[in-house]
C-alpha cells in the first residue's frame, strides 16, 4: 500500500472509531461513569478525531518528503493508540479485569509521540523551498 493511501485508510479508521466511541461514551457510559471519567474519555475521543483529520490531510498532502511522511505516519499511529486508547482504558478501568493504572505511563508517551509528529510536520514545511 502506498504511503498516501495508508494515511487515508488510517485516518478513516481512526475517524470512524472516534465517532463510534464518542457515541458510546455519550450514551452508554454517561450513566455509569462519573463526570471526571467521562471528561477523560471524551478527551481521548477528541484527540483521536483531531489526529484522524490530520492523517486525512497528510494523505492528500504532497509537499512532505516520503521518508518524513513515513516517520510522521508511525508517530501518529503509535502515539494515538498509546494516548487515546490508554485514556479509554483508564476511564473505564473499573469495568475490566485488567488494571489500566498499571500502564498509565504510556499515556504521556503517546502524547509525546503526537507532539513529535507535529514537530516533524513543522520541520518538513519549514524546509520546503518556496517555488
Give a verbal description of the structure.
The protein has 131 residues and is mainly α. The protein has one domain (3-126). The protein has four helices and no strands. The longest helix has 26 residues, at 35-60. The chain is elongated, with a radius of gyration of 16 Å. The two termini are 30 Å apart.
Task: Please outline the helices and strands.
Elements: H1 3-27, H2 35-60, H3 66-91, H4 106-127
Helix pairs in contact: 1-2, 1-3, 2-3, 3-4
Q: Work out the count of structural domains.
A: 1
Query: How much of the residues is beta strand, in percent?
Result: under 5%
- The number of strands is 0
How many angstroms does the end-to-end distance come to? 30 Å
Question: What would the keywords be for this entry?
Answer:
single chain, 131 residues, mainly alpha, Membrane protein, DUF423, transmembrane, membrane
Summary, kept brief:
The protein is mostly helical and 131 residues long. The protein has helices spanning 3-27, 35-60, 66-91, 106-127.
Amino acid at each position: 500500500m502506498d504511503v498516501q493511501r495508508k494515511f487515508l485508510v488510517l485516518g478513516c479508521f481512526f475517524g470512524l472509531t472516534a465517532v463510534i466511541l464518542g457515541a458510546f461514551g455519550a450514551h452508554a457510559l454517561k450513566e455509569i461513569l462519573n463526570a471526571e471519567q467521562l471528561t477523560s474519555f471524551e478527551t481521548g475521543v477528541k484527540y483521536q478525531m483531531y489526529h484522524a483529520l490530520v492523517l486525512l490531510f497528510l494523505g492528500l498532502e504532497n509537499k512532505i518528503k516520503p521518508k518524513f511522511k513515513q516517520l510522521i505516519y508511525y508517530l501518529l499511529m503509535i502515539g494515538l493508540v498509546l494516548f487515546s486508547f490508554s485514556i479509554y482504558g483508564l476511564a473505564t478501568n473499573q469495568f475490566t479485569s485488567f488494571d489500566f493504572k498499571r500502564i498509565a505511563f504510556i499515556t504521556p508517551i503517546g502524547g509525546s509521540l503526537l507532539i513529535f509528529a507535529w514537530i516533524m510536520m513543522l520541520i518538513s514545511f519549514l524546509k520546503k523551498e518556496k517555488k
